[in-house]
Amino acid sequence: MTATIAQAQLDTKAPAVSLLALCPHCDLVQRLPDLQSGEEARCSRCGHHLDARHPEPVVRPVLYAGSALFMLLLANLFPFVSMFAAGNSNEMNFFDTSSVLFTEHHQWLAILIWLFIQAVPAACMFAILYLKLGMVYALPARTWVARVLYMLKPWSMVDIFLMGLIISFVKLVADADISLGPSFWAFCLFCLLHLRAFQVIDRRELWSKIAPCPIPQVAAQPGKSGLAQNLKLCQVCTALVPITQTQCSRCHTKVRLRQRASLQNTIALLIAATLLYIPANLLPIMRTVSFGETIDSTIISGLVLMWQDGAYPVAIIILIASVIVPVAKILIMFWLCYLTRLPVSQRQRHSTQIYRLVDWVGRWSMVDVLVVAIMAALVRFDLLMSVYPGVGALVFAAVVILTMLAALSFDPRLLWDPLTEQHEGVGFDAATER
Ligand SMILES: [Zn+2]
Ligand SMILES: [Zn+2]
């Protein structure tokens, strides 16, 4: 399905409140076009996704989420991958990627990986099933489930795990035979169905079915910022909330004009990530024991080794994911924080788009950590050849998590506030939350 993308409209007629949207990235109030099935509306100023209509809004998400859960169950029941090397064989199950780390005294890393590739994706699929079936059977607590669903979404990393599997196989294929079990194919289907289940739901549409959009006691005019009209956005359910109201009347979340201490939190998380990035590169991420010889490899030395072995595509992917992306993300996030302090520039649209890109791409840095978990579960032939995780893997995972939290803490509306102050005469003051 190719979605038609329509731009939100800025005419000044007073539309129904359910058709008004406040952009979470640039704070512009706009009138949503009357969308048909398969259409999507984007912000006319910054291009952010605002609304979408999907065909068969109940049946498709239920089918995708239900099938995804069934595939996840199958992925845990049968052999995942087998490896044969020098007359020995080892079989890995899907759950081994976490359990082996646990037995190797890397409990924190084991728990993180289990959460990212099993618990969070499964919880998201259950939540989608519950919310969609809840539309038909009026199930309770849907407000709470919808809040949790969008909180968990960035932490579901099944697509990155699949990339990690491919990289691991390419690394190993020169030294061993790899045989893919039925659970591997079930996992591939799970990834696909999980992705589709998220593609066929829309936050705004979902909330409109849980409860009608509350009518703010303040007139809202399209084409002006929320800040200038004493309106703020509920980031959870997309409702427009008057500035004087502290809680959203639909989802009961505390609503703030801008994210609390956004710049301070973002900068603090970025500094912590920068400091941890040094030991993450100096400490070994993986230990390989081969014929009694032990080799500790850091991210960089692993990269050099792969390049020397001629595995250029994998070396390039790891270079991008583990070196370029985290460094670029930290630098760009610092630059965005600096931009919010500048007087009006013409770069708001571009900087908001760059923010969205780094926010999306940052989680892919987790791929190297997942490769270590897969290799440690798969390559277990005692002294002949075994792979063990290194402490650097946990430190690097912490760097990725901190940069993800930094991107989540950053409020892109701060980039647009100087423009609002110049054109509409109302500025945002973080000290008074005005
Ligand atoms: Zn916008
Ligand atoms: Zn709300």
Structure described in brief:
With 434 residues, the chain is α+β, with helices and mostly antiparallel strands. The protein contains 14 helices and 14 strands.
Describe this structure in words.
The protein is an alpha+beta fold and about 425 residues long. About 50% of the residues lie in helices and about 15% in strands. It has 14 helices and 14 strands. It has helices spanning about 60-75, 95-105, 105-135, 140-150, 160-170, 180-200, 205-210, 260-280, 300-310, 310-340, 350-360, 365-380, 390-410, 415-425; strands at about 5, 20, 30, 40, 50, 80-85, 90, 175-180, 230-235, 240, 285-290, 295, 380, 385-390. It is globular. The model has no long low-confidence stretch (mean pLDDT about 90). It binds zinc ion (2 copies). One zinc ion binds near residues 234, 237, 239, 248 and 250. One zinc ion binds near residues 28 and 46.
Helix content range: 40-55%
Helix segment tally:
14
Task: Please state the second-level CATH architecture of the largest domain.
Answer: Up-down Bundle
Strand order of the largest sheet: 12-11-14-13
The CATH topology of the largest domain turns out to be Butyryl-CoA Dehydrogenase, subunit A, domain 3
Distance between the termini: 43 Å
Listed once per kind, the bound small molecules are: zinc ion
Low-confidence stretches: none
Number of domains: 3
As a percent range, the share of strand residues is 5-15%
For the sheet with most strands, the description reads: 4 strands, antiparallel
User: What is the alpha-carbon Rg in Å?
Assistant: 24 Å
Name the overall outline. globular
* SSE sequence, one letter per element: EEEEEHEEHHHHEHHEEHEEHHHHEEHH
Mean pLDDT: 88
Q: Give the tally of β-strands.
A: 14
